[in-house]
Write a structure and sequence with these properties.
By secondary structure, the protein is α/β, with parallel strands linked by helices. The chain is built from 15 helices and 18 strands. The strands form three sheets. An eight-stranded mixed beta sheet has the order 4-3-2-5-1-6-7-8, sandwiched between helices. The chain has a seven-stranded mixed beta sheet with strand order 13-12-14-18-15-16-17, sandwiched between helices. Strands 9-10-11 form a three-stranded antiparallel beta sheet, covered by helices on one side.
Length: 443
Amino acid sequence: MDYQQAWDYLDSLQFHKIKLGLDAMNSFMASVGNPERSLKTIHVAGTNGKGSVSVTLVTLLSEAGYRVGLYTSPHLSSVRERFRINDTYIGEEKFAVLATRIRGVLGTDRITYFEFTTALAFLWFAEENLDLVVLETGLGGRLDATNIVTPLVSVITNVSMDHEAYLGDTISSVAGEKAGIIKFGVPVVSAVKKDAGLAEVESKCKEKESKLLLYGDAFRATRADTGYWNWVAEESFIKLSYKNLRCSMKGDYQIENAALALATLVLLGGVGLSVSADQIRRGLVKVKWPGRLEYFCLERASRKQVQCSGGTGTLAYLLDGAHNPAGVESLVQTLSKECNYQRLILVWGAMADKDLQKTVTLVAALADRIILTKPKGERSAEPGLLLQNVPAHLQGRCTLHSNVEKAIQEAEGLAGANDLILIAGSLYLIGASRKILLGDLVE
């Protein structure tokens, strides 16, 4: 297969049919010699923030000169976004070669889309003589296709309600699935909270004899008066602190995510992967995670990216894949604390299987105009359904567009010099919008 044929074949798999379980994954990886067993890995799970923690780890380790693989999901516009070594995405030719190999081994058997991409990641990384691989779970943890590794460190960012149809309809059941990545004797770094995963993670750590390093207990982040922040570990963990740190990404919660990454780096230092304080400071301001509180400005006439100046010829955008209630709450907090604008023009799209009322209600209250749209995909909610979930007193602010480009064009026509266009909700919407506004992330 060439690259396009490989991508088409991948899309023909069970892309929208989530199948949890490790039997098929274990069987396939055994048939190709279990390349994942040759890798040193960090395994990252959680409801929100796992992508940010993962990319922060890779950026800081790259700054220190290590070769680090990164596997994340979903992608925004190209499947190649899921596979990186440092800042370099997998090439089209290599993707096609590995996909052809996987299809040949499978024969008439079938695995899911996510199992296929996970297998491809393991095969690629095993060829590349890497110092470390960072793996983000796709869904849950216990039965996720990535959960066939025994990592150096397990990370569980946080737990809130999401994917209830697969993970359970209580915080306890969701937390139990996330805690399923914990392996015997492997330390766990986490920011789970009381009544939101802590009891389940503590219980699993005790069962697996794994040390739990908890944010706010073993280590913490403290804001300095200068606007910077400090990372401090308790003596029960390690006598160490990093001062005068700054994150490049918007959102107070990114400090918590960065703090989890630093705790993980401390543990990696014990196995020979050390990163200096200066490398940490330099690396943190280089971290980028497209589509997650991503702020930029474009020239109104050409859509050419420019510096944000607030002039009449520019438009300001904020893109955020806030697709569950906890994510939208963080978005709302960021809008209130960190964003300056006269009017907020909201472009919103979501998956039909999400908590539509709770998510759109939170952000719609802040918007002066609301444009409801639908990215391509059978799971995307129709704009009319979204409108039904907007509070009645805000429905007069809404317009509906089934085409994402037309929705963005309307937002741009409405926006004045000091207004902010917020495009939020489904990552499918973010991917489509980002491609329209900035082009493909992967060349």
